[in-house]
């Protein structure tokens, strides 16, 4: 179930370019951690190293450790496929599988892992869709294509798909940036629900959102173009937004730059 | 009566009428474009009309699709293209059975795995192969299959030459289709803990399926009419031969080429009839491609 995540001395590179330097942070279980900061500061990059999605990009590489309940996911011999099964991800743009129905989308993770038991798949589909607050809207058209839903529903479908495989941690990369305010509210309510069971890390450009949904907030910044992004500070959300420890954080959250 | 200062418009109107010069240029361009369209259409319509007018009588004869030319005299209005139709279809299908899987797998390699020199080499080779004239492909297979391996001329040798011509088209179209599949879908699948090969088989290929099918069918339609390989690699036969590995086998282009030396009215009718059959066959393949892609297309409603 929900596990804690610790990143230690992360240095992240795209080819020769160092995108992120010296990030150390701790994400407690059943807790929402928000990553904020200006564009290009490496928030998404850090997020993608937390489930080894980063290395899908050609030339990308990571130094440092990411510990899931004390176990290094970058240790030799660890299968990235296992890591990603344990640490799920929701992306910026809703990306349901276009060839699959709503239900097939939700159970894709289990079915493609070889689960064939139909009653179990049905049960998981319903539980995940209820968990994503989507069941009432789609229960009468589970066999319609996933692409037929609205943007906000598609994103909740993607969340249902991610929680159907029961990950220990859920990473969200700007999950609301392509959505209207009402859908955004639905997703935020959902995050508040999900944190009872999951460890959640969310990247957001929207500081109000970070303030609304998260328990702790990490502020990333970069010294200039071509410089690596750095973690400036991480603390309780309330403290970051009322009395941050660093001047740069203060300037950013009060809208003086970024 | 003079207009006072107050009655005059404050500014001249913003919008003017079209000037005569622009109108004239517009007309000229319209005429030129329409003319070019008509000129491009003329040979097409002319060709189709000629083939239909001269060949339809052959197609309505009861024996056309059901009989070969076995025992038919050159000037006799009898027999049909049964043997040639079988030959064309058999050679093209054998070619497709070999070329489509190799082409799809090569495209998967190029899009999903290919990095570095091997991928560049493959792309380069596919480019070169797509520029190879059909006669060169035919001569290559002749040199390999008949001169080097010492095997007989056969329909299978024709299929091999067709593979060389079809392969680059299949690789190219599949590559394009696979590249159209958004990277986000692959990542969504990885994020569920699905391995890469399963992501390709269960997510990427189904998403690109309709395009891959269309591309393959169009490539098949193209090789149906290839003439050089059948002239070089297989002999002409008046009668049906079901064995693609042995003996002479006529295909539609070979049938047309053979009847070309038959000056009688019956021979002329056979040429046009076979030409019309070939055109209809290619049309049929294109139609099937459209239908299949319609059915396998991604549905959003």
Task: List the main descriptive attributes of the protein structure presented here.
heterodimer, A: 258 residues, alpha/beta, Rossmann fold, six-stranded mixed β-sheet, four-stranded antiparallel β-sheet, 11 helices, 10 strands, 34% helix, B: 301 residues, mainly alpha, MetI-like fold, 2 domains, 70% helix, flat
Structural class of chain B: mainly alpha
CATH H-level homologous superfamily name of the domain at 5-90 and 168-253 in chain A: P-loop containing nucleotide triphosphate hydrolases
Quantity of strands of chain A, as a count: 10
Uncertain residue segments of chain B: none
Q: What is the CATH C-level name of the domain at 5-90 and 168-253 in chain A?
A: Alpha Beta
The coarse silhouette of chain B is flat
What is the CATH homology-level superfamily of the largest domain in chain B?
Answer: MetI-like
Q: Please write the string of helix (H) and strand (E) elements of chain B.
A: HHHHHHHHHH
Output mean pLDDT of chain A.
Answer: 91
Instruction: Tally the helices of chain A.
Output: 11
Q: Distance between termini of chain B?
A: 69 Å
**CATH top level of the largest domain in chain B?**
Mainly Alpha
In N-to-C order, the SSE pattern of chain A is EEEHEEHEHHHHHEHEHEEHH
Instruction: Name the biggest interface.
Output: A-B, 31 and 24 residues
User: Can you tell me the CATH topology of the domain at 5-90 and 168-253 in chain A?
Assistant: Rossmann fold
Major sheet characteristics of chain A: 6 strands, mixed
Q: Unreliable stretches of chain A, pLDDT < 50, 5 or more residues?
A: none
Supply Rg of chain A.
18 Å
